[in-house]
Amino acid sequence: MLSKTIRSKIIIRTLLTVVLVTATLLKTTLQDGALLEANAHLNDLMKSSDSFLLSAPAPIAGGAFVEAEKEEESYTKATVANNSLDAWFDRSQTQALIIQRKGRIIYQRYSPDAGEGRNINAMSMSKVIAAILIGVAIDDGFINSENDSISQYLPQIVQRSGDPVTLRDLLRHTSGIETAFKDIRATLKGSPLITPLSEISFNGDRSFHYDNINYHLLSLILNKIYKKPLNQLINDKLWNPLKLEGATVINTAGYCCIFATARSWLEIGSLFLNPNNQVVSANWLQKMVEDAIIPEWFFVQATGKSEGNSYGYHVYGGLPNLPDVFWIEGMGLQLVMINPKTKTVIVRLGGIPSVLNIFSNRHDDSVIAPLLDILMADSESYSDVEAID
Length: 389
What we know:
alpha+beta, globular, about 15% strand
């Protein structure tokens, strides 16, 4: 038998452990909530192309005949009757939402101000375009592999000997780059980096550290090897071959700010389900998903948490109940979500309501709860949904 004193000590220690664990969990929850709130307000400042923080975007021509072709393929602007999705759309500050399963759109809705997505900044979803273009450059023979040193393409960059930073490091944010906010401000406003390439430091921690300038450097490499500005390169290698509608992009960023229709993003997401696509190799798309790192701490809007998330070449994972689902994400909860098992692609563009809005989706168990339900459902669940013309 334990003495009364020993029993008391065990009880006290157990209670203290419970209190500490609870406090840690509460702290993490509060931090994650604060980060989501910060994303909501930052997105509001940059969501439109006339934001004072952004330069005027350059045009991506796309295909002039796309609208007619899409209409002939029943790619209509109709919505689909779904009360739960409609309610969530209205509560979530969503401006464009498309759900496609097995090549067929089963839901499509836009807010009047969305311009079908063209008026919405895709934010960091633009990074996935840069990542795809690196794969295209490998296919074209301009880049040997993602393991090439970045100095091979940007010789002004001085690296420490024996441990070169590679394109893969830029793609996965493991370059150890140390940057200044002035360079973000400049590149968003249409100017080049203020810090000369020769002075950029890669002496930081080589574990995961998300930094926009990693993808800016990728865009500089693409500009150099193709001798084209980013908007023309995107058009020639992606938008025109895929016959996507016209869009715009801030040429000097590379990590942000494509303004495109939700249907265009749907086609980008569908590439990951189409190994026979004609724009980039299936092996590269697979690598973008599977060559992932699980950072110790990295907040992701779609999961609403900072732990257990994975990051590939700007392709995310980490939904506990949906291990096969991956997605592209940008600030403001811009999303392209893909379930390869059910061949489902979801595009969501818009903003995030403030937590102060008690009627919004911010107080749901997940800010994307109905989208998760659709991703979890098998394809037969929506076989009887009919479009409303």
